[in-house]
Amino acid sequence: MASDTTAQAAPARPVAEDRRRTLRQLVRYTLIGGSGIALDMVVFLLLHNWAGLDEQIANALSTTLAITNNFVLNALFTFERRDRIVVRFLRFYAVGLTGIALTNLLFLVFTDALGIDANLVKAGSLPLVLALQFGLNRKWSFA
C-alpha cells in the first residue's frame, strides 16, 4: 500500500516544479516585457506625436525595437536558452508580429472606426499582447 501511495505522489512533484518554473518565467517575462513596453511606448510616442509618423508605421518601428530588446533579455534571463539563436530570434520575431497585427487591428477598430485616441489604444493593447506572446514564446520560440 505504501508503494502505491508513493507511486501516486511521485508525479505531483514534477508538476509542482513545472508550475513554479512557469511562474518564475512568467514573472521574468513580465518584468522584461515592462522594459519592452516602456521602450515601445516612448519610441511610439516620439515617432507618432513628435515626428508625425502614421500610427501604423510608428507602431511597427517601436514594436520591432521592443521585440529585439525583449528577445535578448528573455534569451538570457527568462528561458536561459542560447542555442539556435537565429532560429529562436526569427520565431520570437514572428510571435512579435502577432502583437503588431493585433495592435493594428485594434487601431482599425478603435482609432479609425470609433475615433479613440491612438495612444490609449496602444496602451490598452499591451496586456492582451503580453498574454498571447508569453504563451507562444514559451511553447514555440524557447521550447
UniProtKB/TrEMBL annotation:
It is found in: Membrane. Keywords: Membrane, Transmembrane, Transmembrane helix. Residues 28-142 form the GtrA/DPMS transmembrane domain. Signal peptide: none annotated. The chain crosses the membrane at residues 29-51, 57-77, 89-110. Its main location: membrane. The keyword Lipoprotein does not apply. It holds the Pfam family GtrA_DPMS_TM. It comes from the Bacteria. It is a multi-pass membrane protein. Belongs to the GtrA family. PANTHER family: PROPHAGE BACTOPRENOL-LINKED GLUCOSE TRANSLOCASE HOMOLOG. This is GtrA family protein.
